[in-house]
């Protein structure tokens, strides 16, 4: 192997997975450099997702396509697969994919780098610490692993295990490091950030953590993903309102459904009524940007259940919304429930929700035209010289629309003042 190992990495799924990828790569105990294609690499790492069937299919396809691309190379690069796919399918997966040289589970981030070094016969060197793969403007900060909720449709607890909060001092120290490398925004992530610290015996763990994070030098924006509805309390909101910037009033609250029958079927009866949560947030933050996700077509979902969801979307006017058809996942309680909904019905319901949201989003975006906004610049536009892709405070990275910005002084990583000139359904155009 070359003195410096060339590494190509693919991270599929959620931001929490991306943090795991960055952590594993940053822990490599040998000299390495990142390359942009598997054909140029000595080592290819694929971090997989297996939350729902399409994610499983995407992960398996990525492994097979990569293995095929590497097969004819000499010497053949080593192929490593980590993450949720091997955690969910275990030995069955390993037997079906003999092309994979190294396997790793989400719980094995501390030993995966050692396995990679052994597979490569690499010369030891000091680990570099977490390796950033996001643009210079932002970084994800994972504060907990796993989940204690028992939603009947969800595979996460069986894959990732119960809630395990990271020690507060470790989170703060990592945040300092990310800011020290130039990030302006920290996106705090967990399966449920409002649950942070419960397993550590902390009564208001998230509040205590934020009291440590918000004053950190260099932090301009702090964003929370994702908040369980019942965790969005008056106490938390009052604290956040009093804290002010760098906290941005962006609330990602995955309601999943709004009808009591469906919430009960999902085993989310403690999720709190969606209307009450939205009203509570807007009472503390009148200009808040809200995002949510919904599942349609859960077994037993009738027309009146779906209509209740559609009516909520119309009246709540969320900034951002994601909707997914229910997938019958093996091993979950919902998979054996009666009243399974036909796929074509689920697809029509998805489209109905998104059609309603497109109009709402376009109207909300139009309301920003003519206003002055701070825009955090992420990257140059891939096709238009002089144009950059950035975000306003109400746009989370990778999941929401973007703000296209141009003008003097616009460079990646910088936060600039700009005027919104034009609005599209989900995106904005601004001039610095």
How is the secondary structure organized here?
Layout: E1 5-11, H1 15-26, E2 32-34, E3 43-48, H2 53-71, E4 78-83, H3 84-96, E5 102-104, H4 112-120, E6 138-142, E7 144-145, H5 156-160, E8 164-165, H6 168-180, E9 185-189, H7 205-213, E10 221-225, H8 234-243, E11 247-252, H9 260-265, H10 274-284, E12 289-296, H11 303-316, E13 320-325, H12 343-366, E14 372-380, E15 388-391, E16 403-406, E17 415-423, E18 428-431
Parallel strand pairs: 1-2, 1-3, 3-4, 4-5, 6-9, 9-10, 10-11, 11-12, 12-13, 16-18
Antiparallel strand pairs: 7-8, 14-15, 14-17, 15-16, 17-18
Helix pairs in contact: 11-12
Q: Can you walk through the features of this model?
A:
There is one protein chain. The chain is built from twelve helices and 18 strands. The protein is globular. It folds into three domains: 5-120, Rossmann fold (3-Layer(aba) Sandwich), CATH 3.40.50.12160; 138-366, tm_1862 like domain (pyruvate-formate lyase- activating enzyme); 372-431, OB fold (Dihydrolipoamide Acetyltransferase, E2P) (Beta Barrel), CATH 2.40.50. It is of the alpha/beta class and 432 residues long. 34% of the residues lie in helices and 22% in strands. It has a six-stranded parallel beta sheet with strand order 6-9-10-11-12-13. It has a five-stranded parallel beta sheet with strand order 2-1-3-4-5, sandwiched between helices. The longest helix has 24 residues, at 343-366.
